[in-house]
Backbone:
């Protein structure tokens, strides 16, 4: 898909991977703008096409007392302010059919969570907004099965569709990335590797998902070497106080070093 179809996206001629990055959830305006500004500074320096990510609400929670959001409209307006302040596109995930049209008024890319990617009504509703639809591969699905999710978007009259691999369940409390699936899914749509959720450790006894953020660069290097079209990561200036998914987030202070290393690998791959 031509990235230039996304409003406000930059550096599309750099021959780099593109990046979806930001906090797991929108916790407030100040934090969202702070994180967006930092990522933009780094991606502009490295000429990486960048889309700011933030969930306007979190519906898939382990416990009833887990953080779900600051209010739908409030969070969506913050995402819109990120766009107007920094002239960058945004992506958020949706969970209900009614979320599709509502979120489409504020963001440029609609993301279907992995647990919901087989929900036909949700996928179709996202597709019919005309926005780019990012389908997260279900942790329970084979790479080849994603062709059916992609086809639902296309059959709804929307060719703007991506796939994001976020790992596959390995036992009850671990995830693995099968890199053989990347080129397979690229036959169906541009494919992104989620380098933070792939390191989650779900189903903990505490009801709070764990993770292995120290392996983010390991996962990312392999993905870039394999030839993914884009990368997805969640980052926060202090993951220990993040209200959602802090255990597998990248600390924002490590972002530039990580992306610099990945861009170097990409340049090497481009010369082969």
Residues:
């Amino acid at each position: 898909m031509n990235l230039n179809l996304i409003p406000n996206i930059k550096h599309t001629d750099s021959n780099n991977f593109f990046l979806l990055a930001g906090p797991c959830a929108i916790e407030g305006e100040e934090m969202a703008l702070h994180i967006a500004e930092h990522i933009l500074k780094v991606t502009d320096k490295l000429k990486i096409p960048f889309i700011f990510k933030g969930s306007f609400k979190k519906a898939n929670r382990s416990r009833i007392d887990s953080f779900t959001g600051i209010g739908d409209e409030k969070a969506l307006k913050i995402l819109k302010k990120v766009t107007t302040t920094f002239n960058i596109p945004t992506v958020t995930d949706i969970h209900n059919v009614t979320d599709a049209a509502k979120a489409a008024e504020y963001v440029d890319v609609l993301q279907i969570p992995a647990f919901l990617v087989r929900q036909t009504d949700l996928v179709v509703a996202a597709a019919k907004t005309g926005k780019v639809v990012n389908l997260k591969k279900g942790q329970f699905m084979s790479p080849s099965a994603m062709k059916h999710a992609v086809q639902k978007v296309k059959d709804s009259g929307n060719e703007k569709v991506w796939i994001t691999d976020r790992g596959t369940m390995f036992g009850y409390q671990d995830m693995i990335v099968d890199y053989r699936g990347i080129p397979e899914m690229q036959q169906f749509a541009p494919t992104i590797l989620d380098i933070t959720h792939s390191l989650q450790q779900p189903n903990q006894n505490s009801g709070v998902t764990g993770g292995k953020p120290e392996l983010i660069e390991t996962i990312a290097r392999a993905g870039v070497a394999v030839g993914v079209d884009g990368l997805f990561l969640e980052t926060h200036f202090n993951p220990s106080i993040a209200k959602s998914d802090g255990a597998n987030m990248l600390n924002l202070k490590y972002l530039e070093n990580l992306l610099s290393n990945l861009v170097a690998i990409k340049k090497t791959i481009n010369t082969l």
